[in-house]
Structure formats: C-alpha cells, structure tokens
Design brief:
Distance between the termini: 18 Å
Low-confidence stretches: 1-25, 96-105, 558-562, 565-570, 607-615
Mean pLDDT: 77
Number of strands: 11
Oligomer: single chain
Strand order of the largest sheet: 3-5-6-7-8-11
Strand content: 5-15%
Radius of gyration: 39 Å
Number of helices: 25
Helix content: 40-55%
Shape: elongated
Length: 641
C-alpha cells in the first residue's frame, strides 16, 4: 500500500512540478523585454500584447485594461490602441502565470496519459481473456485431460501474473500440443477425469463421454484413428501400430464382436502375413509383391495358409451382417470356388493393399536414411509417410467389401468402417503437423476428430478452436509483438479491476476509457481520470462512485485514429483536459466493463478552422451516460470480504 501511495504522490508531484516550472519561466523582466522588442516603428504596443498583460490586470476585460494603461505613468506613452505590434508567438507559447494556469501547455502530459490508457485498456482485456481461459479449463473436466500442462499451470497462477509467466506458459502449451493425440485417447478412461470420485457432475459427464468412446462405433473409430496417430508420433513402425490397434480394447472380439472389430483383426492378419524377414524392413517389397501375385501357385497356397490360420485361431474373423454372418474362411472358400470369375478383382485389390504396405516401408526407410546421415528429414517426407499409412489402412479395411462379387453381402462392411476411414487422415496428419510445428493446423485437425467422435458431447468446439489456436500462435510467436498480436486476436472482455469487484470496498486512483454521450451536448471518446470508491459484491453488481479530475479522451481518440500525436498542430492546455465529474458506474461482474453516468464539466476545446483561425468551445456542465473499460491505476485503500 505504501508503495502505491508513494507512486500516486509522485504522479501528481510530476504534474505540478511541470506547472511550477512554467509559472517561473516568465516574470516582469522577461515580459518587459518581450514587449520592448515587439514595439512598432512608432515605439508603441497595442491590444495584441494584452495576452501578456492580462496577468497584471487580473479579471479585467480588454477595455478595462486599456483604461488602466492610459492612467499608468510608465505605460501610457507606449500604448496605442491602433498599434498592430505583436509579441512573438514562441514567447506566448512559453508564457503563463498562476493567474492563467488554465493555459498551461500539457500536450505531452495528456498524450502520455492517453498512451497509458490505451495500453492498459488492452492489457485489461488480455487479462480478461486469460481468466476466461481459466474458467474454460475448469468448466469442462475433459479439457484438463486434453491440455493437462496448460490447465495445471493456468489454474495455479493469478490472472495478473500471466504476462510475466508467458514464457513458462508457452512451454506448457507446446508440451500439450506435442502430446495431443495421446491426451485425446485418455478421454476414454474415467480415472483421467480430475474429480471423478468426488464430484457427481464430473462423474456423470465423464461416464457419458467414456461410454460413447468405448462402446459406440463412432467413438471407437475415433479412438482407433488416434491410436494409429499416437503410434506414429512415438516412432513405432506401422506393423506394430496395427498390431497394437488389433489388441486394444476397442477391437476386442470379447466385448464387441462387430464388423469394425473384425475388420481391424483382418487388417492385422494381412499385415502380419506380409512382414519382411530382411533386417530394417517392415513388409516385403513392391517387387516381391509383383512377383508373388504372378505366381498363381504361391498366391493360392498363401490364401490356403490364411484359411488355416483363421480356422485354428481362438477367435474366427466373422462379419455379422443384416441377413447373414460371413466368416473369413467362408469368404476364402467362396473365392476358391469362383476363382476363374472373381480372382482378377481379388488379385488387383490384394496387390493394391500389398503395394500400399510397401509404400509405408519405403517412406519409413527414407526417414531413417536421412537420420543416419545426420540430416533433418523434409516435411514432405513425413507427409508421404503419414499418407501411405492412411492409404494402407483404408485399402485393407475395404478389401473384402470391394470383392462383393464373391459374396454380395460383403458390401455392408464398407459402411461400418467408413467413420474410421473418414477420421484416419486427420489423425495421421496430426503427426505431420507436430513434426512441422504447424500447431494451428494441428488444432483444427484434432478439432475435426473430436467433433466426429464426441458428437453431441462436444459443446465447446468453438472454445477448443479459439483457445487451441491461441496456444498455437503463442508457441509459433517469434517476437513479443507476435505474442501481443496473438492475445489481441482472441482476447475478449476482466484484470486488476477484479480486485475492486471482489472487495468489500476499494478506493483507487482510477482511469476509464470508452464512449460517452453528454445529454443534449454531444458524444464521443472519453478517458477520465480521478478517484473511485467501489462497493464490491460476491454475487451482485459492484457499484462505483467516481470523482473525475481530468479527461484525455481527445488524445485517445486522436491516437486510435492516427496512431501518433506528432502531427497535432496546436498545444493542449490544462483547461483543455480539466473535466471535473461525479458519476456512478455499475461494474459488470467478471468483466472490465462499467456502465453508468452522472454530471461532468466538459473540457474547454480549441481547434483550428479552415482559415487557420482558432475557435474555442467553452466548458459546459452536462449530464452524461457512458460505457467504459475500467482501468485502476493505484489502489489507495482496499478491504476484502
């Protein structure tokens, strides 16, 4: 508190020190020298010197001054009402006195305050954004799972410390982004939800989401695609990823012996049957495949071995369709029985699958070769690798339905795996986006996955994209201005104003910036500064009594429209910013916004006309209503509840 009071005292000492310096700048000596140098050819001065003389004839009109001069034994011989002599303009700019302190030049002072209010207004809005982000992570327990480091960090610091903590927060963002696929998979596990065992609302929501992800076809399809993406991100080879997918609970025949599960099992059988024995290779090569399918005997023996493998397996691959159930052995038997008619289609589709597996092996080898040479793989290399895995999975999933000429009912399989095939590209691309550090695209890609798999349980899609994109922009920011732009791009209106709202009462040196309408007078930008007394509220609307002293709204308006005040031609005097007021504001809870009104004295405004003449709008008392951003400068006294 002492520090705030000291700063507050210094603030006004600086202002009045500037005034005193100006007061002492011109006295009788300097005024006399200035007038003497400005006399006309007849040695006279006239009414144009009254600007200087007014301080020696306090409160008198020009006519009264002229009368007094004619009776002044020293000045009457110099005064001639017809004289056009003028005191130099530069001298008048520097001249003032205690009696005319309203003409004090405060251009730089007013501009400095205007800059401060604009910047602080932005900062208050930024803090509001961070508080909304904090609320977002608390409102949805699943957000803490998807962005665990971010949620833990952002909920452990006060809102007004975000600016100082941004570097650490940025690291938390990046950690979550790089683990996004595995974090999304954790949504299916009840134990991942913080508060699951103690909060009934969280438990209910978590059970709904987990049931959807673990038991429904869209949910399981999405988790399956994420398992593939996560395996790629961790650097596992594609065959092992497929085997992991086949052994995951979402494709366990004991719990869900449906078309999706059996399709996954079939893909894994194909994958394992084409594994290469050569060191450093996943599957057999494209050349081996081409030679293999041309050897009719070898191909038919291979199919016979697949038949035997399934026949002796604990779980037989089977597809429970609408009107019938078709097992893998049944399909193979019918294929053999109709070989002359159906073999060409089957051989082509099988070759496509095998070649797709070979493409994965080739792309994987390209990445490994570059790493061995100590070079950095190009982004295109990773993109090709991801694309080839997606291609293999989709071709494998549709191999049987593409051979409906063997059994027409097999076409039904395509619909059951379509959700998985629709998501696998987005899921696979997440690896590419992480590798290329294109976190913005990663957010949009995973948002599509979440939308596909969570469906109606995804009411926060827009927030996910908003906050996720913000996190991505912060990670990718190259400079402090980039960080500022990222915050401004998504910030919405609450910060230090919250201290007032949450206190029993608070007294502060306060600024506001916003829009006001003076009833029957005018309207425009306002930026008053003065003292505020606020009665906070735990649940209701905080109320503030504001006693204003000055208003730099014209400077704020000029800066907002022109960016700088360097081109202002005229100087702003103290009377141009003095605006005493008494107003009552209602503070909108959790927002840095105040709405209210009262009575104020509008500042005296001078401006240049088209003919370069100076025109003045006098100060007036007016009732007004305003909507403003609340910007406390210093807390003078505060009492909490």
């Amino acid at each position: 508190m002492k520090a705030y009071k000291s700063t507050f005292i210094l603030f006004f000492l600086l202002l009045f020190a500037g005034m005193i310096e100006k007061v002492n700048a011109q006295n009788e000596y300097y005024d006399a020298v200035a007038i003497a140098k400005s006399l006309d050819k007849n040695g006279n001065f006239g009414p144009k010197q009254f600007t200087v003389l007014h301080k020696y004839f306090t409160g008198k009109t020009d006519n009264q001054i002229a009368t007094d001069l004619s009776n002044n034994p020293f000045l009457k011989s110099y005064f001639n009402a017809a004289s056009l002599a003028t005191v130099p303009e530069d001298y008048l700019k520097n001249a003032t006195s205690l009696s005319s302190i309203g003409n004090l030049n405060v251009t730089n002072f007013a501009d400095g305050i205007a800059q401060f209010l604009i910047q602080r207004g932005k900062e208050e809005i930024e803090v509001a954004f961070f508080q909304r982000m904090q609320t977002f992570t608390r409102k949805y327990p699943e957000v803490k799972i998807v962005f665990p480091s971010t949620a833990n960090f952002i909920n452990s610091i006060d809102s007004y410390n975000y600016s100082a903590m941004l570097p650490a927060l940025r690291a938390a963002f990046q950690k979550d982004m790089n683990s996004l696929t595995s974090n999304l998979i954790n949504l299916r596990t009840p134990a991942s939800y913080s508060g699951y065992s103690t909060d009934t609302a969280i438990k209910k929501r978590a059970n709904q989401i987990c049931a959807f992800l673990n038991t429904t076809l869209p949910g399981r399809s999405g988790i399956g695609a994420l398992i593939v993406a996560n395996g790629i991100t961790k650097g596992n080879n594609a065959a092992d990823i497929i085997n992991q997918l086949a052994n995951d609970p979402i494709s366990d025949p004991k719990t869900a012996d449906d078309i999706f599960t059996n399709s996954i099992q079939f893909v894994n059988v194909l994958s394992q049957s084409l594994r290469s024995n050569d060191q450093g290779k996943i599957w057999i090569t494209r050349q081996q495949i081409n030679d293999f399918v041309k050897d009719n005997d070898a191909l038919q023996i291979y199919l016979g071995l697949l038949y035997a493998h399934d026949q002796n397996n604990a779980h037989h691959i089977q597809f429970i369709l609408t009107k019938t159930t078709i097992t893998l052995t049944t399909f193979l038997a019918n294929l053999k029985a109709n070989w002359s008619r159906a073999s060409s289609t089957f051989v082509q589709s099988f070759t496509d699958v095998a070649n797709a597996a070979s493409d994965i092996a080739d792309n994987s080898k390209n990445i490994l070769d570059v790493k061995k040479q100590g070079d950095q793989s190009s982004i295109l290399t990773y993109a090709n690798y991801v694309s080839s895995i997606s291609g293999f999975l989709k071709l494998s999933m549709t191999l049987l339905p593409n051979n409906s000429n063997v059994q027409s009912e097999l076409s039904e399989i395509g619909g059951a795996v379509s959700k998985f095939n629709a998501i696998i590209d987005d899921a696979g691309n997440s690896y590419y986006y992480i590798k290329s550090q294109n976190y913005g695209a990663l957010v949009l890609s995973t948002s599509s996955i979440v939308a596909e798999i969570v469906g109606a349980n995804y009411p926060f899609k827009n927030d996910y994209i908003t906050y996720g994109t913000f996190m991505a922009d912060i990670i990718e920011a190259k400079s402090s201005s980039d960080v500022q732009s990222a915050i401004e791009a998504v910030a919405l209106p609450a910060g230090s104003y919250s201290v007032k709202q949450k206190s029993k009462y608070n007294i502060s040196l306060n600024g506001y910036i916003g829009y006001t309408a003076d009833i029957n007078q005018g309207q425009g930008v306002t930026a008053p500064i003065g003292f505020s007394g606020t009665l906070g509220s735990k649940k209701g609307i905080p109320v503030t009594l504001f006693i204003g002293l000055i208003d730099v709204g014209s400077f704020v308006s000029y800066r907002l429209n022109n960016g700088t005040t360097d081109q202002i031609k005229q100087q702003v005097t103290l009377e141009s910013i003095i605006a005493p007021s008494a107003q009552i504001f209602f503070e909108i809870p959790k927002w840095p916004v105040a709405i209210g009104g009262g009575v104020r004295m509008t500042p005296k405004v001078s401006y240049s006309t088209a003919t370069n003449m100076t025109s003045t709008v006098p100060s007036k008392v007016a009732a007004n209503i305003s909507i403003l951003i609340d910007i406390p400068f210093f807390t003078l006294h505060n009492k909490t509840f």
